[in-house]
Amino acid sequence: NLQFTVAPSSSSSTSSDETPAYGLQGGFGPTILALMHQYNTSPPVDELTRAQTELNQVKDVMVQNVEQILSRGERIELLVDKTDVMAGQATAFRRGARSVRRQMWWRNSKILALSFLVGLVSYQRSLGSGYFLKTYL
């Protein structure tokens, strides 16, 4: 679409030796100025749009990645907190179980001792002599 015009020269010769330096600038000046203005104010839409689309996609992916990392960090913090609570509960359960086991051992020992004593007393009574009871109790 670009049309370049050549400035008329004063001689009929078309030799480049006779053309002064920057002699053709006058014909290309307005065209170059228009092109510079066009590319500086509104670059080609296809390349710019493609670059902006790619940039937006990369930005969206990065935002999603950051959100996932933050979400994962929050879940890890929750798991650590729950683990600490469970460790405390396990320690308390172990202490409670040890205490109950001791109480049950003493209770069992007392019942066993009383059962033995009752058995011994009933045995002595069945023999009829109260010698053991008179001697030891």
Describe the structure in your own words.
This protein is mainly alpha-helical and 137 residues long. It contains 3 helices and no strands.
Brief overview:
The protein has 137 residues and is an all-alpha fold. The protein has helices at residues 25-41, 45-127, 131-136.
H and E string: HHH
Helix-strand category: mainly alpha
Q: State the low-pLDDT regions, or none.
A: 1-6
Task: Please state the average pLDDT score.
Answer: 80
Could you give a short account of the major beta sheet?
A: none
Question: Which shape, going by the Cα principal axes?
Answer: rod-shaped
Helix content: over 70%
Strand coverage percent:
under 5%
How many helix segments?
3
* Radius of gyration computed on alpha carbons: 53 Å
The strand count comes to 0
What gap, in angstroms, lies between the N and C termini? 131 Å
